[in-house]
Amino acid sequence: MIEISGVCSPNNIKPGKICFISKEKYINKETEKAAVILCSPELLHIISNENILYSDNPQLAFIKILDLFKVKTSKPDYVNDQIIFLGKNTKIGSNFVAGANVVLEDSVVIGNNVNLGHNVVVHNNVIIGNNVTIGSGTVIGSEGFGNFYDEKLGWVHIPHIGSVSILDNVSIGSNCSIDRGTIDNTVINSGVIIDNQVHIAHNVQIGENTAIAANTGIAGSCIIGKRNMIGGMVGIVNHINTADDVIISATSTVNKDLKEPGVYTGIMPISKHTIWKRIALWITKLDKIVFFINFKKK
């Protein structure tokens, strides 16, 4: 008999955990070490692990498994002297400052010199390091927008049993949303600064000393490199990786990996900034070019 204590992702195999393998590309020596593998019948012949669960609808089966391990949060208690609501097993370091109506759910861990603005909500199992400032109205560790479409059931929400890890010396503005990971934690590394009204989705990793301007949205499972500078109103689609020392111009849409350092602009399909400037120059001359072509035809 095998005792299963939880689930793990293909990128982070852990003993005693069940791992969902959705595609052949995720099968390797490390994933084979999972206690149990969940997959579709089509993958059975290429998996050597002796402990396999398979289903014609493995993603829906995985959602049900995730729900078994989802943490049920208790109602926080009201603490009158600090005007905050505390869950169970919450640990708070020294020099903690909180505004009105702050909520810290169960098993939240907060380091030293942390300042939370009014109406900040920190959901269960979130870890916040030292010297962190979080602006008013920000929500850390909310459920991510992970959903699976089933022909019979419609949209089925995927339970998120990971959490959020915020390392030291991080500054987060007001009214931001940082979603918890599906299995592994969403990670904000040390030295990151985040402006107001930024959304960071589930499973995202933000590299050290990266700066993110207001109204930016980073979709699920992106890995942002170190020392990136992301302008305002940038949209980054899911599963994008960026190199270290990348600068993304404001209002850009990033729909492909940025593999080299440099300045990128993506108001049109994203490209190196020097190339984009040449394209933009030609666009401003299109009316004259069309007029010249039509004149030549006459």
Describe the structure.
- The chain is an alpha/beta fold.
- The protein has two domains: 6-69, MurE/MurF, N-terminal domain (Udp-n-acetylmuramoylalanyl-d-glutamate--2,6- Diaminopimelate Ligase, Chain: A, domain 1, 3-Layer(aba) Sandwich); 77-274, 3 Solenoid (UDP N-Acetylglucosamine Acyltransferase, domain 1).
- The protein is 12% helix and 29% strand.
- The protein is built from three helices and 33 strands.
- It has helices spanning 58-69, 273-284, 286-297; strands spanning 6-8, 17-20, 36-39, 52-54, 77-79, 84-86, 91-92, 97-98, 102-104, 109-110, 115-116, 121-122, 127-128, 133-134, 139-142, 147-150, 154-157, 164-166, 171-172, 177-179, 186-188, 193-194, 199-200, 205-206, 211-212, 217-218, 223-224, 229-230, 235-236, 246-248, 253-254, 262-265, 271-272.
- The strands form five sheets. Strands 5-6-9-12-15-20-23-26-29-31 form a ten-stranded mixed beta sheet, with no helix packed on it. It has a ten-stranded mixed beta sheet with strand order 8-11-14-19-22-25-28-30-32-33. It has a seven-stranded parallel beta sheet with strand order 7-10-13-18-21-24-27, with no helix packed on it.
- Strand 16 and strand 17 (154-157) form a beta hairpin.
- The longest helix is centred in the N-terminal third of the chain and has 12 residues, at 58-69.
- The radius of gyration is 23 Å and the shape is globular.
- The mean pLDDT is 91.
